[in-house]
Write a structure and sequence with these properties.
This protein is mostly helical. The chain contains ten helices and no strands. The two termini are about 40 Å apart.
Length: about 260
């Protein structure tokens, strides 16, 4: 039973990867390539190619429903959104920037960081498949490789070894031989650890300010005044003076290079 599940995962994961890549690249390629024609009428096909194109469209629309989940878990999205959320908590502001701002900024940063990877997927798998130069299975394999390489570069060897041992599979000769259903969870927990490490470093200077303000208020006997009310302007001033957004975004982007 487990062998059949693993076999299905090996087949389906590259399909989802290919769908995510096509979502990112559709807007850019639409300006250079003509839109495909399709309608919802059911009538006899004039050629076998029409049937194939209809099936491709149906498969693509089905897979796009899963694209958001794979966008979050298989790209730089996880690390960025956690760090930005921790930054907001460290500043002590609950609604600035709003969740929509954080998610929107995270999405555009993800597109910026993942653009080289999806460009490879487009050139090696998507475009040859749309031109009917390769089969669907070949497109899945070619499209999965760039994403797998990206995730392996960000994954700790310890996390990868954990899931290899849990699946009780033979130890691969090199990381590139690890199947996608093993790489993905290892990549996710590595991203979580990295994000919390960055978040801790962000918290330290703001925690020092909170402790200093609390100590001053206690020495002055102002026990009823909330320290966070006094510390907030100083934390915002510090963040603005050091150009905090520039430093945080620069560090996040460079952490993926």
């Amino acid at each position: 039973m487990m062998a059949r599940v693993e076999k299905r995962l090996k087949v389906r994961f590259p399909v989802f990867l290919l769908a995510v890549a096509m979502v990112f690249l559709f807007a850019r390629e639409a300006a250079a390539a003509p839109f495909p024609f399709f309608d919802l009428n059911i009538r006899p096909a004039d050629s076998p190619e029409q049937v194939v194109d209809s099936v491709k469209l149906l498969v693509l629309l089905t897979l796009l429903a899963m694209a958001p989940a794979f966008l979050i878990m298989m790209t730089s999205f996880t690390r960025i959104v956690i760090v930005l959320s921790l930054l907001r908590s460290a500043l002590g502001v609950q609604a600035a920037p709003a969740n929509q701002i954080i998610v929107g900024l995270t999405l555009f940063l993800t597109i910026f960081i993942m653009e080289p990877t999806y460009k490879q997927v487009n050139e090696q798998a998507v475009q040859p498949y749309l031109r009917n130069e390769i089969t669907q299975q070949e497109a899945q394999q070619l499209g999965a490789r760039p994403l797998s390489d990206f995730m392996l570069r960000q994954t700790r060897e310890k996390d990868l070894a954990l899931f290899v041992s849990l699946t009780k599979m033979e130890k691969p000769e090199k990381p590139e031989d690890v199947p996608m259903h093993v790489v993905i969870p290892a990549f996710v927990i590595s991203e979580l650890k990295t994000a919390f490490e960055i978040g801790f470093l962000i918290f330290v200077p703001f925690l020092v300010i909170d402790m200093a303000v609390a100590s001053i208020l206690m020495s002055m006997g102002m026990f009823m005044l909330p320290p966070i009310m006094i510390a907030l302007p100083f934390k915002l001033l510090l963040f603005v003076m050091v150009d905090g957004w520039y430093l945080v975004i620069k560090s996040l982007v460079e952490s993926f290079r």
